[in-house]
Amino acid sequence: MKINTIHAHPSGVFIVNLGEADETRVDTDPNRKDPNRDAVRAWKGERQSWVRSVEEMRASAKRSMTSWINDLTGAIQNQYPEVVQKGWIEEEAMAADYLSDTENAAQLAVLTADATAKGRTPADHAARILEKANTFRGIAAQTRRLWLATDAALDAATDAADLASVLEAARLEAAPLARAYGLTA
């Protein structure tokens, strides 16, 4: 039997080409599903190359971009439990109401208890909440602009080199922004 080519996908699916008239699919793990049937590793003699379309490379680049942005902004967000983060908008409103003397009794009770737990006066605590909210809003706005610009540039990229260049340019642009907020890019 002569084998012309063997294509192996990382999922464990192999395609054995015995000739144009006879191509057989061999699955080394029949319990595994293969959602990317077209992405295969091709062996021809000693060479191997990863066969990926520009669309697959673009999707991978976008996942990479999202991952490093999440890692970067996670340096701030991961300091707080998610349940606390979900209350940031209400906390900011409570602090603004307190500083403008329009807070209600419930807001005053929460703000006073939180301030006491942090060793601050209610006024100092409210001012700190608003300062942090403004800082985070600035980080979020710059991150959103960088993400949108990078996403558009990735959409316009035509090959692997373009995609890599776009990601590198975004990382270079993110570095000074990150340093300004005490983060590491």
Describe the structure.
With 185 residues, the chain is an alpha+beta fold. The protein folds into 2 domains: 5-51, no CATH class; 55-180, no CATH class. The chain is 60% helix and 13% strand. It contains 6 helices and 5 strands, in the order βββββαααααα. It has helices at residues 54-77, 82-86, 88-99, 105-118, 122-156, 160-180, and strands at residues 5-8, 13-17, 23-27, 40-44, 47-51. It has a 5-stranded antiparallel beta sheet, with no helix packed on it. Strand 4 and strand 5 (47-51) form a beta hairpin. The protein is elongated and about 60 Å long.
Gross morphology: elongated
Number of domains: 2
- How is the biggest beta sheet arranged? 5 strands, antiparallel
Radius of gyration: 26 Å
**Coarse structural class:** alpha+beta
Count of DSSP strands = 5
- How many helical elements? 6
Spatial strand order of the main sheet: 3-2-1-4-5
**What is the terminal separation in angstroms?**
54 Å
> What share of residues are in beta strands?
5-15%
Low-confidence stretches: 17-50
Mean pLDDT: 79
Helical coverage, percent range: 55-70%
Oligomer state of the chains in this structure: single chain
Which sequence of SSEs, written as H and E, runs from N to C?
A: EEEEEHHHHHH
